[in-house]
Amino acid sequence: MDSNPSASSAKDAAGRAAASAKSACGLPSSAVIDLSKTVIQHTDAEWQRLLTPAQFQVTRRKGTERPFVNQFCDHHADGVYFSICSETPLFDSRDKFESGTGWPSFTKPIQPEFVGVSRDTAHGMVRDEVHCQVDGAHLGHVFPDGPGPTGLRYCINSTSLRFMPRAEYEAWLSKRSAAHSG
């Protein structure tokens, strides 16, 4: 037991401040930790009921959509891109850039804990596959040929994403933050 009440009070305040600190995606840090430990799993039959055939092919079978004719290749609205398979924010439009590849490209994920990378040796190539850590959805690939500050190009299938305009995202953040703190 701490015999100094002001020291104990300072520790309590520091603990509350750390718990309510905002992460890169805007959620309280404690909510990011909770979400990053969440695992959403369904059977293939359940995923097929939840997703369109194209979404299922890309996210669950590691498919690739056609370049230049996808939903977000030429999309320039301000907001956040979520996984189509869960309520996980993945990329911010502020980190999106024109790569000329035909797929939406980002310099970084909105929150590193939400996006995983694994080696992909399919199709006779060696690449780094990108997936959502929460729901396992295949998103695309990451390459070391992007602009600063990261030098990375997250080349993402539109089919694996859902877009939320900035104002709607801010309301979503407020709701999630309130639910997490109370």
Q: Report the uncertain regions.
A: 6-19
The amount of beta strand, in percent, is 15-25%
Percent of residues in helices: 25-40%
User: How far apart are the first and last residues' alpha carbons, in Å?
Assistant: 27 Å
Mean pLDDT: 86
Number of spatially distinct domains: 1
Instruction: Summarize the helix and strand pattern as letters.
Output: HHHHEEEEEEEEEH
How many strands, which pairing sense, and closed or not: the largest β-sheet? 6 strands, antiparallel
CATH first level: Mainly Beta
What attributes characterize this protein structure?
three-stranded antiparallel beta sheet; 31% helix; 5 helices; alpha+beta; six-stranded antiparallel beta sheet; globular; 22% strand; 182 residues; Metal Binding Protein, Guanine Nucleotide Exchange Factor, Chain A; single chain
Provide an overview of this structure:
- The protein has 182 residues and is of the alpha+beta class.
- The protein has a single domain (26-181), classed as Metal Binding Protein, Guanine Nucleotide Exchange Factor, Chain A (Beta Complex).
- Helices cover 31% and strands 22% of the residues.
- It contains 5 helices and 9 strands, in the order H-H-H-H-E-E-E-E-E-E-E-E-E-H.
- It has helices at residues 5-20, 29-36, 44-50, 53-61, 166-181; strands at 79-83, 89-92, 96-97, 105-106, 115-120, 127-132, 138-143, 153-156, 161-165.
- The strands form 2 sheets. The protein has a 6-stranded antiparallel β-sheet.
- Strand 5 (115-120) and strand 6 form a beta hairpin.
- The two termini are 27 Å apart.
- 32% of the residues are buried.
- Mean pLDDT is 86; it is low at 6-19.
